[in-house]
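Predicting structure from sequence has reshaped protein science. With that in mind, we have picked out one protein's residues alongside their backbone shape tokens:
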Amino acid sequence: MEDRAPVPSPHPAKDVTEHVGYRIKRASAALRSAMDKALREHDLTVPQYSCLELLDEQPGLSNADLARGTFVTRQSANVVLRGLKDAGLITRPATTDHGRALPAHLTPAGQERLHAARSAVYAIEERMIKSIPARRLTALLADLDTMAEALDE
């Protein structure tokens, strides 16, 4: 086996736990875990909740739009939408007059479930936000957007 030159770190770090990607993943995993626990009480998953939020803001989104907005594949979004429809939380036509996109809309039951779940999710976000100085929140959000854009292809 030949000796390999070490790969230089992109910034000073003692180990992998000090890398930016690791820290973002750790925060993401903690957020997901807290949301999973809170949403279980509302009989929702994180992707289902995300779909309800997006449909509340933009009624009529298609499966593809919701997949992009919730960071899942189209196939996964279709499963999520089927579950929401079966639970009576959204409506989707069986067919459409034009194209293949089937627009989804919240039902009154979907609005109620979203409203109840939103309080739990917003409380989690508030816990995260309160953990950093308020003056740094705007910069943090901008930095996260900039990092995501740097990776978008």
